[in-house]
Structure formats: C-alpha cells, structure tokens
Amino acid sequence: TSPVAHPCSRLCILAFCIWRTLYSLYTRTWLGYLFYRQQLRRARNRYPKGHSKAQPRLFNGVKVLPIPVLSDNYSYLIIDTQARLAVAVDPSDPRAVQASIEKEGVTLVAILCTHKHWDHSGGNRDLSRRHRDCRVYGSPQDGIPYLTHPLCHQDVVSVGRLQIRALATPGHTQGHLVYLLDGEPYKGPSCLFSGDLLFLSGCGRTFEGTAETMLSSLDTVLGLGDDTLLWPGHEYAEENLGFAGVVEPENLARERKMQWVQRQRMERKSTCPSTLGEERSYNPFLRTHCLALQEALGPGPDPTGDDGCSRAQLLEELRRLKDMHKSK
Fold it and tell me: Which InterPro entries match (predicted)?
C-alpha cells in the first residue's frame, strides 16, 4: 500500500501551492499592480511625511538621499551635487520621489531598478514619462516595467561623476541586481543599494531561486569592503535584529546594534545605512560559515568546510526560521 502523507505535510504543501499562486498573480498580472496602488494610497494617508525620518549623507560632491515610501520601503536619490544630476533607485512612490527631486533642484537622468516587484518598480512609468530623457535600467530577465536600458553583471552606469556598477544577485527574483556606487571618484565610501537582497541584519526571501543561488548572491556582496555603506530596500532593522538574537543570543555586536536601532525607532528615525563590516558581525545570513550558528541550529553538515551546499542548507534553515519568527 502507498504511504499516507502526514496531515502537517499536506498542509505545508497546500500552503506552498497557495503562496505560489498568489505570488504569480502579484508578479505576472495586473492584480499585483492594483494591490500596489492600494498599498500606495494607504501609506500616503497613514504616513503623509513618510514612515521614517531619513538622514541624507553628503560626501565630496555626492549626496545620498533616502526617501521613505509605502509602509517600510526606501527609495533613494543619488545626486551629483556639482552637475545637479540625480539617479533614482527603486522609485516606488513617484510622488514622493518627484517632491525630493524638486526640493533638491536636480535633473533626474536615470532610474536604477533592483527588481520587478511593484514596491520597487511601481514609479517607473510616471517618472519616465515626466522626465523624457530619463533612462530606466535593470535586468532584462526580470520583466521590469518601462525598462529602456538592460544591464548585465558588472555593467557600469555613468552619470556625471557617479560611477555605479550593477551586480547580478539572483534569488529573491531571477534577475535581481544590486548597485554599487564607487567611492573613489568622490574620495568617500562606496555605497551598496541592495534592494531586497540584503537588509540590516537580514536578507530577502528566496522567491525565484534556491538557497544555493541566494548564498552565491550574498557571497557576491561579502566580497566588497567592510566600509561599504549598506542602503537597503526596507526598514526591517528592529525585527531582523530580534530574530538574530534568537539564533545568536550571546552576540554582543548584535546587542549593541539593537540598542542603537531601538533608540532610532523610538524617534521614528531611519536605521540606514549600516556598513558591510557591521553586517558581518551580527547578520546571521552573512554568518553561515560560523560554527556557533551551526551549533545553535542543531546537528548537521559542517558549514566551515569547502562544501558550499552545507552553507546553503544552513542558510535555508535560517530563512525558514525567520519566516516563522514573529517580532515582539
């Protein structure tokens, strides 16, 4: 006789099928766009001045301006202050981004889209129509709306003195890209605009890839310098650090960062940027090589060896636990 599936297994399979159906509707039909428009209206009503107070960073002729949009997203303007030229990253609320463009008195010449999800690409249409010479960059594998200039891994976008490199980081979506602003031309730190690949103490869900794919993408950014500033696509810091405390409760770097984040959030201040050096010390998704994490999650393959699959299994388990985690 055939074995009968355990009820919990059947429920998991059913939940997975429902999730895949909803995800397909969100990404492949206009129902997703309508849902995004509803999110946009609700967020504008709830947060007329944005969900967080963002602090811009001004370097030697370059300004990075976070723009809090929707309920927890960030868009960004990267500005060459001498040429008065701007690049927008993931402009999901075109009204908020346009207001920042006008306030800064700059010309929008490019949009960099990390991936196709509406909460990152939803403003492409309105802004590209308003700014006729604006180019829309992104991966051709991702179905990004109003894409005009497809990018591949290591392609460079030049705007004034800004040199921005695209890095292919699939996993969250098939064509996910992150963007690295080179710090050398302005003698400052490089800046990583990570979309939904990497957050403060977290990483994105693997919607269109495997744990191995996501691990490879995270390793891509781990290869960047410790002083690289991390500008993520969402304000998830407090919840992510809470989860990190579950899997590494004795991590003092995490505890110090949590105290700082809680002070920031009490005043509704943004928690970005962090640095990649900081992230290495407390972000569990960047610490799959650590024996302490392996021991905390129970017996299994040794993630410190050369077998990349073992690190991928640990990453997959971390992601599963994070999906079940509820912030308190």
Answer: Clx_II_MBL, HAGH_C, Hydroxyacylglutathione_Hdrlase, Metallo-B-lactamas, RibonucZ/Hydroxyglut_hydro
CA-to-CA distance for 232 and 193, rounded, in angstroms?
6
User: How many CB atoms are located within 10 Å of the residue 320 CB?
Assistant: 11
**If you classify domain 46-324 with CATH, what class do you get?**
alpha beta
Catalytic positions are 115, 117, 119-120, 172, 196, 234
- Written as tens digits, the pLDDT of the chain (328 aa) is 444 455 556 665 666 667 677 888 888 788 899 999 999 999 999 999 999 999 999 999 999 999 999 999 999 999 999 999 999 999 999 999 999 999 999 999 999 999 999 999 999 999 999 999 999 999 999 999 999 999 999 999 999 999 999 999 999 999 999 999 999 999 999 999 999 999 999 999 999 999 999 999 999 999 999 999 999 999 999 999 999 999 999 999 999 999 999 999 999 999 999 999 999 999 999 999 998 888 778 555 444 544 444 899 999 999 999 988 864 3
Q: Which contacts (CB < 8 Å, 24+ apart) does range 151-158 have?
A: 151/177, 157/87, 157/110, 157/112
Distance (Å, whole) CA 124 – CA 241 = 32
The pTM for the full model equals 0.92
